[in-house]
Write a structure and sequence with these properties.
The protein is α+β, with helices and mostly antiparallel strands. The chain has twelve helices and nine strands. The protein has two domains: 128 residues, Alpha-Beta Complex (Cathepsin B, Chain A); 143 residues, no CATH class. The longest helix has 30 residues.
């Protein structure tokens, strides 16, 4: 058995920040999960629906691995990412760092992981790997999935090689701190402003505050859109609250990031942004509750209420981001 020493196998709320936390703590940099999420400019919004989809998708963050790229660039970290179509090379890419005493991050489809209780395909899942033996691998996943967990090498290979939406070709990555790391505190304002700029200037109407406005128009029709409303709507609500988002479709994480920032930076616009995202987090939880209730009861009035709140959320988040980009 090969195990990386001194791994703090701490599961957090969100998969990518959990994996980043493991890799960075091993390098000597210990940041809170909200700070990792915020410095990676992780917050976003997408409403996505197409004929090929069984049900619409509501996303609250940037694309998988973009958060990692953003964080590495922001802090001057050396991010070494590898992809391959070869199963042999894919294993070598993860075994070599671990043999050398370093944990490695993996992007994969969680469907094939033995410990996952809910068997749903999601190709943007991220874990940290810190050990292996002849049959199993040792991973760190979110607290919800068990934190320090094990899965079979065969299952891991299937998860890494799966093709479909948001998947990567056996992607693995390591992170190295420079000899003289940048001050992460100095990167807070640039990270917030970049996130705000992207949110406000989204290129299509499905994204950013315009995407939330679109959701407000579409969600009231979800009972007719759903093939199985009693299953589809509660599942969508569950993903918003419990699907590794930290609650409120990542808004609770960003609220906590901004709160942490207000303790380091004295700025009225920052305090305004924090106040508005604290309000938004509560309303997003209200939306998910109403969506679940509509699926369970068949009451379209719940979706109408959700639509009204989403229109308010579009305005609230636009105001918040306009304040934050003034930092």
């Amino acid at each position: 058995m090969t195990i990386v020493k001194d791994i703090e196998a701490r599961g957090m709320h969100h998969c990518e920040t959990t994996a980043l936390g493991v890799l960075l703590r091993h390098e000597g940099l210990d940041l809170s999960e909200p700070m990792l999420f915020g410095l990676g400019s992780g917050l976003s919004f997408i409403y996505w629906d197409s004929k090929g989809m069984a049900f619409p998708f509501l996303g609250g963050r940037v694309k998988p691995f973009d958060l990692t790229r953003n964080l590495a660039a922001r802090l001057g970290l050396t991010l070494t990412a590898k992809e391959t179509t070869s199963p042999r090379k894919a294993w070598e890419d993860v075994a070599a760092p671990i043999d050398a005493g370093r944990p490695v991050g993996l992007q994969l489809d969680c469907y094939h992981l033995d410990y996952f209780r809910s068997k749903v395909h999601f190709g943007g899942h991220v874990v940290a790997m810190y050990g292996y033996d002849e049959h199993d691998v040792h991973l760190v996943d979110t607290d919800q999935q068990g934190g320090a967990v094990r899965t079979s090498r065969a299952g891991l290979a299937l998860a890494r090689a799966e093709r479909g939406p948001m998947t990567a070709r056996n992607r693995s990555f390591t992170i190295t701190l420079p000899a003289h790391p940048l001050s992460w505190q100095d990167q807070i304002v640039p990270a917030i402003k970049d996130c705000a700029d992207a949110f406000l200037a989204a290129p299509i109407a499905n994204l950013g505050h315009r995407g939330i406005e679109k959701a407000g128009k579409q969600v009231p029709g979800w009972l007719l859109r759903a093939g199985e409303p009693r299953q589809d709507l509660p599942q969508a609500a569950l993903l918003m609250e419990k699907g590794g988002t930290g609650g409120a479709l990542f808004r609770a994480l960003y609220r906590d990031f901004l709160d942490e920032c207000t303790r380091l930076i004295d700025d009225g616009n920052l305090r305004a942004g924090h106040r508005l995202y604290a309000e938004a987090a509560v309303l997003w939880t209200d939306v998910s509750t109403l969506i679940a209730k509509a699926g369970e009861s068949g009451d379209a009035g719940c979706l109408e209420q959700a639509g009204v709140i989403l229109h308010d959320l579009s305005r609230i988040e636009k105001d918040a981001m306009q304040a934050l980009r003034q930092l």
